[in-house]
Design brief:
With 199 residues, the protein is mainly α. The chain contains eight helices and no strands.
Length: 199
């Protein structure tokens, strides 16, 4: 029974780490500060829809773009892994924060910067394509939808989560996620090197 769910679990976890729903909470709070409950709900909905649509579109056109440019999957694994590693290291550095205009109060902030690049950024796009290559479209799509549902729950329950774990707990969880993201990046580079040079 567990064997049937194994691909979904193995696909869900890297995407969960890349999305980093918990780590986005402090930035989300700073963006929606002063917004009403109705406005906040609209921002969350816009963000989740945007993030999901961008990721799904990339799932289906990513390989086509690669073939157009003559890029192979191992090429992308190495490049995507290197990019993920740099992103994770930068986020682990003291005082580092995601490249987002946290002072923005634009009505479309659910689309940008929350939907993309905060929720669905380079890390999620790279990981999505890798999971699709490893486990197929159906498994990756289910894992992606589940992750986006988790993001929606997390953002809706942001105040409750902050009361439970506090700002220090949120930062600690984010750091752990970034370390895991760095490890996934190394794995992607390793698989890319094996695919490109050792097969």
């Amino acid at each position: 029974m567990m064997e049937a769910f194994k691909p979904y679990i193995l696909s869900f976890i890297p995407l969960f780490v890349a999305v980093d729903a918990i780590g986005n909470i402090p930035i989300f709070l700073s963006l929606v500060e002063g917004s009403s409950k109705t406005q906040r709900r609209k921002i969350i909905l816009d963000a989740v829809i945007t993030a999901t649509v961008v990721a799904v579109i990339f799932m289906f056109i990513g390989k086509w773009v690669f073939s157009l440019l003559g890029i192979t999957i191992p090429d992308f694994q190495i490049a995507g892994g290197a990019l993920l590693f740099v992103i994770s290291v930068r986020l682990l550095l003291p005082g580092a924060q995601k490249n987002v205009l946290t002072s923005s109060h634009d009505k479309d902030m659910g689309v940008f910067p929350l939907g993309t690049p905060l929720i669905t950024g380079p890390a999620v796009l790279a990981t999505t394509l890798m999971m699709m290559n490893s486990f197929g479209v159906a498994v990756t799509l289910v894992a992606l939808i589940l992750n986006m549902f988790f993001v929606w729950i997390t953002l809706v329950k942001t105040d409750t989560i902050m009361k439970m774990i506090g700002s220090s707990g949120t930062r600690a969880l984010s750091k752990i996620m970034y370390i895991l993201l760095a490890a996934i990046a190394v794995m992607m580079i390793r698989h890319g090197i094996i695919g490109a040079f050792l097969k």
